[in-house]
Amino acid sequence: SQQGEEDPQALSIQEGENATMNCSYKTSINNLQWYRQNSGRGLVHLILIRSNEREKHSGRLRVTLDTSKKSSSLLITASRAADTASYFCATDVGSTLTFGKGTMLLVSP
Amino acid sequence: EAGVVQSPRYKIIEKKQPVAFWCNPISGHNTLYWYRQNLGQGPELLIRYENEEAVDDSQLPKDRFSAERLKGVDSTLKIQPAELGDSAVYLCASSFRQASEAFFGQGTRLTVV
Fold this sequence. Notes:
- The complex is a heterodimer.
- By secondary structure, chain A is an all-beta fold.
- Helix content of chain A is about 0%, strand content about 60%.
- Chain A has strands spanning about 5, 10-15, 20-25, 30-35, 45-50, 55-60, 60-65, 70-75, 85-95, 95-100, 105-109.
- In chain B, a hairpin with a 2-residue loop joins strand 5 and strand 6.
- Chain B has one domain: Sandwich (Immunoglobulin-like), CATH 2.60.40.
- By secondary structure, chain B is mainly β.
- Chain B is globular and about 35 Å long.
- In chain B, strands 2, 4, 5, 6, 9, 10 and 11 form a seven-stranded mixed beta sheet that branches. A four-stranded antiparallel beta sheet of chain B has the order 1-3-8-7, with no helix packed on it.
- Chain B has strands spanning about 5, 10-15, 20-25, 30-35, 45-50, 55, 65-70, 75-80, 90-95, 105, 110.
- The chains are: A mainly beta, B mainly beta.
């Protein structure tokens, strides 16, 4: 079963624009993580935000967490063609990581 | 530092045949996951190990799937017999401790014909 659900399913933008992806989940979590997957490759961890945190930054990434709404967002600023990938949120419930279906991001030059 | 190593990368088998996947996690990582990922979907957990103990195998189809993690290091995932619907990418991941960043291998792409 999949606890998290990303929105939108697909996103197409131009280089230099910002990309925002959202994740909603159903049950209380310990933390929420975002991962990137390039076509045909394994997943790469991007950022982890704990349940008692509201916002976190890492380079061009900004993640927010609203536990009252059971939602998170991932913002990629000044996107590049190399950011083209699928992005997944993963919720930590009882120490098991459960992934959503992902958002496919296409960044055109 | 070597990452999570999986083998084989690709496997094509006929239905009803057995198949096994191998995973070598990052040294020192106590938590090991096996996930299955279908095309266009997110990874779905099959089993989670803490050291050599399977602590979450609720999503593992136990009639045909089995897994083991000997000595709390390497792990194997087996399917016997394979069905057409088992075609997917099987991903192994490890983390230093529970609830922390997970490192993924490149996966094994299984095709059952």
